[in-house]
Amino acid sequence: MIRVVLVDDQAVVRAGFRVLLEEYDDLEVVGEASSGPEAVAVVQRTRPDVVCMDVRMPGGDGLTATRRIVAERDGAATPAVLVVTTFDLDEYVFGALEAGAEGFVLKDCDPADLADAIRRLARGDGMLDQSVTRRVITEFARRRPAPSPGAEADLLTPRETDIVRLLAQGLSNAEIAAALFVEPSTVKSHLGRAMMKLGTRDRLQTVVWAYRTGLATPA
């Protein structure tokens, strides 16, 4: 069972998401919050797998809350933060990526897409879909360019470089494995070593690194 916390300043939005998510047997809403500070407290109390975080809230923004939630992880990969926003190119989204959010979807997305995004974050895949996340990552990289890949890129093996490039295209571990004719476990192992060398904390940050340094380029 995947445990979810919903964060939005509008009660009707939270209620709607709860109804939608509870249609799925593998998802359980274990808490709600209407502001960033409240979200941090609810997460500390409920220990969810995924936090669906709004970014614009008058009682305390989701960016600060995301930063605190990420900073308080006790060595585990959870909870992952999924930004749920009305705006696909919002400054708050870029801030949330920097703060450690691992993916995001638009509020008007299909319920099945929201559920799938939660599942992907829960299993550590990140939400790197072609329709929204990749476009925002590209814009994020354009606004914050880096001069070159730097010394850390030289530490990557050719296989690790290939995997990071494919990851930046939005492929899952299974899809990367199929493209490279290897096992998904091999992809996971190589990607883990690449992230250690690059100093990136998760898949999304690795993709941002790839676009910022030019290792990956927009299609």
Automatic annotation (TrEMBL):
It comes from the Bacteria. InterPro entries: CheY-like_superfamily, NreC/VraR/RcsB-like_REC, Sig_transdc_resp-reg_C-effctor, Sig_transdc_resp-reg_receiver, Tscrpt_reg_LuxR_C, WalR-like. Keywords: DNA-binding, Phosphoprotein, Transcription, Transcription regulation. The keyword Transcription regulation applies. Residues 3-122 form the Response regulatory domain. The modification 4-aspartylphosphate is found at residue 54. The keyword S-adenosyl-L-methionine does not apply. Transmembrane segments: none annotated. Gene3D superfamilies: 3.40.50.2300. Residues 149-214 form the HTH luxR-type domain. This is Response regulator transcription factor. It comes from Cellulomonas avistercoris.
